[in-house]
Amino acid sequence: MSIMKIRREPSGITWLHMDDREGRNVFSHGFVQAFLEALEDVEAKGGTKVLVVQGREDVFCGGAEKKALLDLCDGKAAVIDLVICERLLETSFPVIAAMEGHGIGGGLAMALCCDVVIAARESRYGAVFMNMGFTPGMGCSVLLADLVGQFLAAEMLFTGKRFRGSELASRATNINYIVPRKDVKEKARDIAEQIAEKDIRSIGLLKRTLSARKKKLLVEARLQEDLMHRISFSFPETRQTIEEQYPE
Hints:
Layout lengths: L3 E5 L4 E6 L10 H17 L4 E5 L4 E3 L4 H8 L10 H7 L4 E5 L2 E3 L1 H7 L3 E5 L3 E3 L13 H9 L1 H10 L3 E2 H5 L7 E3 L4 H13 L3 H33 L3 H10 L3
Helix pairs in contact: 2-10, 3-9, 5-6, 5-9
């Protein structure tokens, strides 16, 4: 059974449902590969005017799995190799993040590279990298400020605190909508339908233009983040923290 479910509508709205029940939508190798392949499939078939990315009701998307983090400690991999954010920015259509469930670490980073973000009041969102003993990645060090503002972004990055959507709603963030969880998909559909009314060629032109700034920021951020990772993942304490945070 596929952990990525694609549903296309005649109007040009495509839904990509991330539904890894066993892995709870964390960034395992299989999850990342399946997501990239699903995105390729959507683009290859054409006709998509807007893509809605949704997760499970309880979890939109989590961070990296334990094995991937330990591989980073051992120098077997680099976070800069994880290209989900880049691919979301490179699509020819806008992407709506419909975050019914929690968005943590890399899961929140995915939303930063979408064009419209809808969060749930009941769910928690956080850049928890520092809780694991290593520095932020996937462009969060730069792009998070676009979503929640410079000073709240700094607080989230330094403390690793998970904020409920209702808390973010009171902090004047740039999230498009923060609604009850039961209303997230409905709000995503409403926005998607408005976009789908437009000419697909003009949509593509606008997407490329609006993504240009984020693409540049992401390239710059990833270079700095990769350097920080090479240092912070080499700390013995980082491995110990990861082992403690991810018990068998």
